[in-house]
Structures are given as C-alpha cells and as structure tokens.
Amino acid sequence: xxxxxxxxxxxxxxxxxxxxxxxxxxxxxxxxxxxxxxxxxxxxxxxxxxxxxxxxxxxxxxxxxxxxxxxxxxxxxxxxxxxxxxxxxxxxxxxxxxxxxxxxxxxxxxxxxxxxxxxxxxxxxxxxxxxxxxxxxxxxxxxxxxxxxxxxxxxxxxxxxxxxxxxxxxxxxxxxxxxxxxxxxxxxxxx
Length: 191
Known about the structure:
The chain is an all-alpha fold. 64% of the residues lie in helices and 0% in strands. It contains nine helices and no strands.
C-alpha cells in the first residue's frame, strides 16, 4: 500500500511501525521516508561530535546503514527515535575513537575560574550555545555532549571512550570552565 508521497510531508502521517515494516520489506519508498523523517534531527546530533559538516554527513550515512541493517532487531520497546539516536551517537563515538585528534588537550589547569553571571545562559540562543560547544577541544566536546546532552553517566562515558571515570569528570569540569569563559567573552562583546 503506497499512501506515501515523498514530495509532500504525508510520510509524517505514517507510524514508526508502518515505516519499519515497509523498510523490512526492502521498499525503497519507505526507506527514503524513514531517512527523511529522522535525518535532520540526527544530523544535528552528528554535528555535535564532529569538526566539520562533511564528517557529520559521513557519520550520518554510516549510522543509517547500521540502522537499516539492524532494523529487524528493534523490538518496539521504547522510543524508535531514541533507538536511532543511540546508533547515531555510537557511530559518532566510533569515528571519534579512530581519529588521531582525540587526545587533544588544552592547558586550562592553570587558569583561574572566572565567575559567570547566572543569566548568561538564558540570553544565549540554542544555535549560539551549540556554536560555543563546537569550539571546545574534541575531548571536552565529546564528554560534555555525552554527559550534559545525551545523559550518560561518567561510568558509561568511561566505558564508551575507554578512559577513567576521573578523566571523564575532569574533561567535563574543563569543558564547563571553557564554556563559561566563552560565554563571558560573548556577553562582553554584546555589552
């Protein structure tokens, strides 16, 4: 049953179950609809773990290949979008692990902590905040995203990245300090 017109937004009326069943039948119309429905959100996730747009797009493509190859494993327990997101994050982390820049560090240990106005975060738009997160060194950015955005515990981060829990905590503290400094600088520019 092809009640799907990809040139319109009608594929959004299909349930995840209908999309999955169509994809499992290898119907390319449903595969395209599934990709179109979730690729925008998932590209945003990929961008948080990469240095540039092309790398994010490569990760998205790799993740969707995994999604389509493992679709039969989804048991309709929990959120389908959450399942997809987990695959995307894991694909991004796998890419990060094999990258040579993952050990990048900044010497912030010597920097005194600068106070930040409590209202600084509320004045930032989502795009501005994501842009500041992108400026973090890779290690800081990955840990910050996993902890603050994805909700991973330090134990999960340590296991995933094959680091010590204390390293995860340290990277998060340094990421927060650097973000506070970047936000402070941004606030000074606006004034």
